[in-house]
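Suppose you are handed a protein chain with no further information: no name, no annotation, nothing but its sequence. What can you learn? This example shows the usual starting point.
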Amino acid sequence: MAAQARAHGGRYGKALAAVGAATALAAGAAAPATAAACAGGERYVALGDSYTSAPGVPEQSGGDCARSSVNYPSLTAKALHQKSFKDVSCSGARTDDFWRAQGANPPQLDALGRNTRLVTIGIGGNDIGFGEIIGTCAQLSAGDPAGAPCRKQYTAADGGDLLNQRIADTAPKIAKVLKAVHRKAPHARVVLAGYPSIMPDDGVGCFPSVPIAAGDVPYLRDTEKKLNAMLREQAGKAGVRYADTYAATVGHDVCKAEADRWIEGARPSRPAAPFHPNADGEQAMARPVITQARGR
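A reasonable first move is to predict its three-dimensional structure. Written in structure tokens, the prediction is:
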């Protein structure tokens, strides 16, 4: 298997370069200034990270925040005929960026106000280190494509799973975000969106086109499911709605053929960031968000 990995060395170089781009997007260092939110808040405000903003999907705005005109918040606003709409989602956002400036971009919570009636949120992936995890797993796969080197990397000395711990550590941060949203926008319906189906739901990978080792595909799938389960639980505790974007995208993961792929892999064939939704993926994510926003 090591010989097979070396045989694909050129492909790994290109794939890992693309993964590096995804990691850079997840890091999200800076963004240009945006207009200050009105004191009362827009009627619909979208908060979140790159799975909300949709980097690389045309048409782009927001500088390094990389917001798409067809991301799921924009599609939700259109479906609900929301003329008062503000999208402050930003690539690389963590829960802390709801309170602090992300580069020149104001804290995301600043966009909310007493006039806000709908808030959608997509956050938590960067808190557990999405970009770092994908980059690490892709790099390790070259040396052990049939094994589970990434799972070994994230196994603690006592046998515990380090990514499970990261998810547990992120839970109170999500709870804090939801409480803050309620305080800032007390009259708003709040929808917390989960993450889409990135790895194949059946656990069967497609190495080397997507450089994730065979045993790490189900590991990463299960890790994402645990993250989504935590988000659903926090939504329930806070009395807000949860939009299941994972179920809405199963069968359209990074390993599917281009015509059926809604989440791009290490080397996107359609406009999108690596390991992020393309335009079809954002449209699919919008459907459960719209349903929850309508209260159905």
